Amino acid sequence: MIFLSTLFWYNKLMNKSTFSLNDTAWVDFYQLQNPRQNENYTFPAIIICPGGGYQHISQRESDPLALAFLAQGYQVLLLNYTVMNKGTNYNFLSQNLEEVQAVFSLIHQNHKEWQINPEQVFLLGCSAGGHLAAWYGNSEQIHRPKGVILCYPVTSFTFGWPSDLSHFNFEIENISEYNISEKVTSSTPPTFIWHTADDEGVPIYNSLKYCDRLSKHQVPFEAHFFESGPHGVSLANRTTAPSDAYCLPSVHRWVSWASDWLERQIKN
């Protein structure tokens, strides 16, 4: 009965729609219904880029994260961007930037109907999705995020992930192009970033180096580094844990801290 009641609550308070961006990418839109019965009321929004090593889209960083931020009062758009297991054999990495841009464009085209404040759109990325989110945040685009949340992000392909470039099923000619840490400027959006110290998948140096660059360019940021936790820990609770090693109450705190940070950005 509890499970059925939960499903009823979500079905009653939100709608889910899917929009195709191209042959290998789409976005799922989780739309809250307006609780204030006011046509002029708008919500902030978050675009989520799950991880998966540019090989697949991590399910543990998809629906669970979307529902977590939906419950905090955000319209959520989950980007299922182009990755290798979608039959690609070409370098699609720059195409991923275009896919993020396409989601922002969808928001700006439909923000009234979707009840989104287009000036309060944030970008969240995990692992390789963090690489994509940070890359987009540091690039010149028509639509810019108000802030970026990076969860154990890759910030360069030379900081311990991947172990070698054979990870990709396409050739990378200029590896420095994907060093996002070196793309940080004073125009980089405010950033919330977190990582676990013993992450063996994506070494913490990725986040430490990124924080160093944010500091040098005087970009406002909040960082949290936890003593221990496996890579891809996501919400760090039973919702996303494939084993007990991923249930870490001390790490799960990042969700409430990120929510507080988001609210401060909205008020700025």
Automatic annotation (TrEMBL):
<keyword id="KW-0378">Hydrolase</keyword>
<dbReference type="InterPro" id="IPR029058">
    <property type="entry name" value="AB_hydrolase_fold"/>
</dbReference>
<dbReference type="InterPro" id="IPR049492">
    <property type="entry name" value="BD-FAE-like_dom"/>
</dbReference>
<dbReference type="GO" id="GO:0016787">
    <property type="term" value="F:hydrolase activity"/>
</dbReference>
<protein>
    <submittedName>
        <fullName>Sugar hydrolase</fullName>
    </submittedName>
</protein>
<dbReference type="InterPro" id="IPR050300">
    <property type="entry name" value="GDXG_lipolytic_enzyme"/>
</dbReference>
<feature type="domain" description="BD-FAE-like">
    <location>
        <begin position="34"/>
        <end position="141"/>
    </location>
</feature>
<dbReference type="Pfam" id="PF20434">
    <property type="entry name" value="BD-FAE"/>
</dbReference>
